[in-house]
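Wait, mind explaining this?

_____
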Amino acid sequence: MPGFIAENTRFTEPSMCFPNLVDHNRVTLTKNNPCVRCEALDDDDNNPILPGLPDDVSKYCLALVPRSSFPAMGGVSKRWRCFIRSTEFITVRKLAGMVEEWLYMLTADCEGKGSHWEVMDCNGHNRRSLPLMTGPAKAGFGVVVLNGKLLVMAGYSSSNGGTASVSTEVYQYDSCLNSWSKLSDMNVARYDFACAEVNGLVYAVGGYGADGNSLSSAEVYDPDTNKWALIESLRRPRWGCFACGFEGKLYVMGGRSSFTIGHSKFVDVYDPEKHDWCEMKNGCVMVTAHAVLGKKLFCMEWKNQRKLAIFNPEDNSWKMVPVPLTGSSSIGFRFGILNGKLLLFSLEEEPSYRTLLYDPNAAPGSEWQTSDIKPSGLCLCTVTIKA
């Protein structure tokens, strides 16, 4: 890529990428957000969803259909398909008590040369793989769950000649229709950045840009308009960081900053109502895994990977919890959230390996257990989708 300065880049986790493959029979690409104007898609907009029934009753009936039939339902009519894509569909399923929780794991193959998404239910069953996403293999991308859908954002790809291209592309996986679609591009090409969902919006902050320099810029995605908008930048460039949402605010921590020596402990907090950033000095550094469970943040730092660091945003306090040797003596983990519990997937394969499970609501002394849930290969990242 012209102007790309390789020596200024810090490409990390090369195995965390998507294969450079396209299945044109299974991948669905659209230029616009499929949920913005549902009614515009259907030529028979005035016709009932189900003849003889009011639409509210018809929607409830569709929500009761088994999940495995959703892709077929999406082919019945444009109106059915748009309803299944909508947030209203998830709302109706919640009212009907039909919402299911699934764990999506980006898993490296046995040789570590490629990766794929695989899905498990709350018991670790029904393992299946997602359709392939279009485009070149990428690393350094961001992953967020929004309205029951998986968003994969930006990142970089490398060519055989050694040059790299930093992306602005955003793809969305619809877990109900089992298909990918393309959303609007971001304003700034970036990788190794922080991202999170807050109040139905997606934020992307910092990282590295197309020229390999660190970024302080931030932007927000609104699914109702399918547009990205730049917001106030961070006070300093920041990369290798992560983000999460608490009480309607965006927290950015970990990683490094060009204005600090070594790794940053500063926490940048963005208030969407005031449209500005404030700063805390009680964060964590060199975070290798993180997950939000309930109203708390769980982290693992590189310097001490046999302890959980638990952040309570109500009083900005941290609590350290030792990780038992039961199941795995590994010093490296990836986190997953399923059924209100924290899963710790070991980064080292051992003969007696069992996934560790931490239950924050268990009686004191019995918070730690083991689980049979585990990925088929090395776990690179996970997200939980309820839909």
